[in-house]
Structures
1.
Amino acid sequence: MGVRVSGGDTSRPAHPVHVSRRGELPRRRQVLVAAVWGLLLGVAVGCAGPGRNNGTGSAETTSEEEAPLLLSDEPLLLGDAGSLGDAGTGEGADNSRCAVCHLNLVIEELARTHAEAGIGCAECHGASDAHIADESWASGGNGTPPDVMYRPAEINPGCLKCHPAGQLDADVHREVLEGGSDGDTCTSCHGEHRLPVRKCHWK
């Protein structure tokens, strides 16, 4: 069926509509629509976490059966979600900027222990705004590294900035602190702190 254009051919539509043979939306548009709905659903599920705001500024708790099951039973943000947490205050650090990609922060003992004490990722790795903004890794590109990274030889001095040797059990830590332990570092015993497989190389 055509649209009549004065003096023109009516066998073709005036404005062709791109549809598949079965009259469906093109594949690219289907993918776009599915992605938008997926994003909206993800936001809705994320906002409907285990606590609901009742309009008074306090969250009502729900039963475990009502709470949505996410990747882990552990909270994504340690401490109160509204608190950014000052370093070392014990309020809980807001590592949400990092946890968007680094889901290991939720289960990794070293990151959790520090976050529970109010020590966030930025305390050791800097604000890392360029790293957070760079999404080139998603397309297989080389990502921008965090502001501060630690090579194995830099791990112990980095930890000692906040954990002075004088406060550590000398009998247990002497060999590592004196560098005579076959390359062991603080994280050899106190939890590895890296992604299991790094798929990109820093720019």
2.
Amino acid sequence: MQSGAPVFPPRGPTEGRTHVVRVVRTVAAFAPRFKRFSHLRPNLNSAAAFDPSRSRTRGYASVELLFVGDVHGRWDEADTAFVEAGSQRIVVFVGDLADEDASFVRRIATLTCEKVVILGNHDAWRAMRGGSGRGLRASLDLLGDDHLAWRARSLGGGVTLIGARPFSWGGEIGNHAWFYREHFGVNGIAGSADRIMKAVAGAPATDVLIGVAHNGPSGLGEGPDAIYGRDFRPPYEDFGDDDLRLALDRLRTAGRSVPLVVAGHMHDRLKGGSGVRRRTAIDGKTLHVNAAVVPRHRATNGGRESHYVRVVIEGGALLEAEDLWVDASGEVTDRCSLIPGGGADPLR
């Protein structure tokens, strides 16, 4: 059995045209959710202050990544053809593939391109409610080392992916503490942050780190339209993960470069039709992107398009981050920069 692998007790069966919209957002100041984390408060800079090229390092090739936000069953043969024929180094899924459906996970696990997945709360929909965990166990077996939870994946070119805590519902671990303790040996927020740092310890010291999570970190805003703000019921508050915040702060203190963190979970359209979510935020030298455009398929005249987030890291710096909409033939029909000052607002 792999070290750090989850252990479930036996239970019963059971991408051309370019469309540019010139809008630049700045990120509002925020207050930390909890007083005990006040020393971890990030510095949210204005868009004008964010220059991803400043830290570019010579000698590294560019690395292209393709992120897939919350899937929720929206994956078809056209998606498979697009990613398998793509120029990306790796495809990164940020979770919520389906509702603990191993047969659907198999479709992702058997992709012939390089990929990693960090599973979301829907991927343990029954297990986290005290169910048998049969579907989850099968999903984890299918993914194997491609499940990035608390792991590192070196991509070459001076880039390493770092996975955070899987299955996050947002906010406190709360009632799910037993799940992480029993099945992963992780004790609360501090224990999970320690596991993230342990994964970082296995990454080359000169690599830049790209954070991958199902839900993003706390400290990026408290309103319902904040990048990881709770919109589904009052109180409308910061619903980010404190363990990821702790780990990112520790990495900053240690001098590690984290130019990008990508997550999902909190959908772009707010509950009750009350607006749309701010899908980017700046935290020091880190750009946070919420990839959860849901549904990720949208209807067009005579067809449908799929959403992706494309990222390019070059010379150790974030060079490009953009939304893509791709039609069923694999043509990119819409693209829009996600980097503040890039001249565009995220496509909805």
3.
Amino acid sequence: LYATYKVGSYTSGTHLLGGGVPVSDSSVGTVVWAQTTGALTDDDDYSTAAHADGVRVSGGVTDDTVRLFVGGSPVGDDKAFDSTFTSGVRTYGGSSELWGLTPSVAQVNASDFGIGFSILGNAGTSEYLYVSNFGFNVPTGAIIDGIEVYMDREATESSTIKDDGFYLRKTSGQVGNNKADTVNYWDTIDNGVYNIYGDPTDLWGTTWTAAEINSANFGIDISVKWFTQTNYIYARIDHIKIKVYYTAPILPHRGNAIVRPDGDVSTQWDASTQADHYTLINDIITEPFAPDINSGYLLTLSSSGGTNIIDEFTMGTLYIDNGFITQIQIKVYGNETDIDSTVDVYCGSWLGAQQLDMGSTPEWYTYTWDVSGLGLSQTDLDGMKIKFDSVVPEKPYFYDYVQYGDILDYALGNHYEFVVTGQVNPSLLTTYESNNGVANVFISKEGNFELGITSDGYLQLYINTNGVETTVQYGTINAIPTNQWTFVAVRYIDGDVDVFIGADWYYSAVDGVLEPWDGGGTLVSGGDFVIGAELSTYSCFTGKLDEISVFNRGLPN
């Protein structure tokens, strides 16, 4: 049994790249970005957006639709211009243009013949300049710490242009916060100085993965707004670049480091016929050599008590140089029969049990936990434990009992005193109880008397009298142990009960009640007398019984 690790450490890093594919995105604004590739390099070759001739910034307009109205309804072709409004007269149609209609003279002369205009504002805002395909290669698994965007830009006139929209973009579209500086105007000096948006810890109001940063769709959306009516004022962007701050794992920092068990936390496995844990812990055999399977291994036996067999080992440790654990493998050489067994690892917390699922032929088995996202530390490693948990398989039980019929009605019935004695040697004590709450019943008279043993070795007694009906316990934990003979006796005299177990008298029940049947009088009428069980719910005794006696007198000590 041994464990191997992949150990890594975190290192901080940055990538700073310029954009590869700038395009003008018409989803907002009306002023198109020209020469979009000018933003690729810092070389005085610009991406530009021009404030066109005649643009009216405050309430500026552009055509939406321009159509004739006949009979009060818009009909025919739409003659809207694509460009923004210019001063002066604009002519729509012509001397031979019928707008896709054949109107009659009567229609033209009618009072409801005319023209309708639909006008759009926002003529002073640019489209988005979308810059993407930066070509990042941030390591898989890196933690993104912050993002900065650098932009070298200028306006051709002072106090005329401000940011309008400044968003990062994922494959799904724009995300996070708008970082536009809507307070300060763009300067007019082309001095190669970058304006910086974001900082090393700013994630722009969203979350990021390395895959999203590395995507060709990762980028920036930029739009601007004019605050002037002067013609041909240019917004010019010379260069855009993005800097990504990240913390990334280096794998493997240390590979396949081995630690071995160095002590038992618990020793519940039954190794009575094989070597003890010390042999297993100090076994120096490693893969690919197979250990000796004839000695020095642990064996679980179905005869072990309880429902589960659990064994834990503390593990040796190693120094991981301030790194972190990314993967743990447990290697076990062994075999098993058809049994429900699991292995689990504690390293800061239990990582999750895995089925052993070993075959009947001994060989090496490997169990892997990928813990790269947990960042397990040196402290976690120092406290590492391995736990094996096996469900004790059920074995066939052959129940037997002696049923005498309805006898002993005088002693265990219409009488004020009796004594019941016997030698008991239980081999298994279960928690299964009768309807009257008595487990492992070894003497019963149906309806008025049951004598049994709890799973933790107390003598358990049920008596139903004409005055009191109850179930109580006498003795101490393991007063009646398994796999050895114990003499027990119960004496009843008109509600006064005394119990003898082994070599000790008990004059009050475990719950502190001195006489639980005080004032009970005679027992109610009972049914069949049975040794080895009670038959209503079949609470049975497993083991050996001898010298069972029933007396119709309250015998002295």
4.
Amino acid sequence: MHVALLLMFLPAIKRYLSSYATLDKVINQLKSDVKKKEAKKKKEEETLTKMQQKFLDGFEKQLQMADARQRNVNKDAASKSPSSKETYEIDFARVTQLFILPFFITNLIGVACARSLHYQFYCCPCYAFSCKKMSFRVVRSSKFRHVYGQALKREQCYDNIRVSKSSWDSTFCAVNPKFLAIIVESAGGGAFIVLPLNKITQVGRIPADHPLVGGHKGPVLDIAWCPHNDNIIASGSEDCVVKVWHIPDHGLIKTLTEPVVDLIYHQRRVGLVLWHPTALNVLLTAGSDNQIAIWNVGTGESLVHIDCHPDIVYSACFNWDGSKLLTTCKDKKIRILNPRTGEVESDAICHEGTKATRAIFLRHGLVFTTGFSKMSERQYSLRTPDALSEPIVMVELDTSNGVMFPLYDPDTNLVYLCGKGDSVIRYFEITPEPPFVHYINTFQTPDPQRGIGMMPKRGCDVTSCEISRFYRLNNSGLCQVITMTVPRKSELFQEDLYPDTLGDTSALTAEEWIEGKDAEPILISLKDGYKPPESKAAITVTKRSNMLNKIPPKSKSGGASPVSDKTLQEFADEIRKLKAVIVKHETRICKLEEEVARAKAANIDEDGPGGDGLNANVQMASDEV
């Protein structure tokens, strides 16, 4: 009977035991979860306590510093007016009682009552500050914190410009206080347009038949104004030739096709032209043949050839005094070179991405670069020349495809990042304190940019506190003028915004520079404003005639270059060649006459009076000669 009952209840007993085991597992799992939550909560409380203590220590330190400063102020005030000290001490105590103590107590209560991360973050100011990695300190002092950009009205800009559609990574624009140059589309070769900035009638819609500079046989890829002569501009093209042009003070009245000088060395297209910052008439060119050439443009001679890059050179930049050269290459490396010898002093991987990189020297020797990461994210970095492989700062911006061009203002230490195809201009301030590169603001525009040019500080309006001016090219054919201004109430000259800036006078000649001399750039003051000078003659003597002398044009209505001098030079070369040909022919005739005379004498001796008539043949040949 007992066995029968046991067999009858056996399934129920099994189900009960299995459910008990399952329940035991659930209980153990719950206990484990509770322990984990308690450990996590304990860890969070410890972290919160540490953060709170760190905040309190920092706050106490700030109070001590403020108290020390106040004691110094009170001492100074006591020496001048004893009554002012007592008044200030009473006010400070009252402010402490009314504001600082309640804030302090509120934070302590919030920490004590915190039971969840949600409450700790949203209800406790101390914990919120610590989670965001913010420190309780005074806001960084900078006179450029409130710089703002403003675009001029369309009628004050330049419209109807056929901007080049080349895919080359160039700014397509160059500007100085006298002229604005823009690379344009042109049939039958490359060309660029030059617009004088001192003519009010030149703004607005540009006529379609406006004169161009069009001597190249291929599309123009890069242009650059000479920093020491505002009338001289260099251009590089796909026809492998670098041309240097002279623009008259009042602009072009007909298309200019005759350059001052042609510089021929590269075997493939020339995509980079760069002037030396301190030496007169020294020009750097780089082509797709991986070669860099440095020229004395005044004589048309090549000074240095640099062949250390295994691939295309993306960018080049001289340092402040022109003694070092910084380059970026398609092999992802950044190099610092000796520009006189071409020796590589240091190199390192710049950015991991395969797209184009840019690098510039800052005024005090640091290196600022832009490029792409392996994931095609745009980056910028700050480095020291002694440790190029270890960037001080490396920041990722976005995932756009356009190459970023860093435009640098050495007077304010501001760097403007302008990406090709972007509709924004970001600007940063470089300072000695961390994080070294401080983001200031972004100027937003509705349409993307095709190219951009930056006006030298000499061309900025100091009366309106303008620190930078940009000429921004749109796909619609508009060249938009953008001014960067520091808001100031006073209309007086702001010396802190306008220190002495780069002038248009060279510190060295090309001969002095190639011999090894270095010199700081010559600076000028903008206190009385800057007026672009008229073309003037340079008093320099070189081995050959200097083709970039600042000689004023003989006629304002004439062409854009000294045609009479060039024509005379061509005639002189032709006459010299003809004289050489004449001398060569005379020498040959003399030799032939001698041979004929010798042959005639030999025939007379052999034939005698009854010869076979060879003498007559020789005589006829002599007469023909």
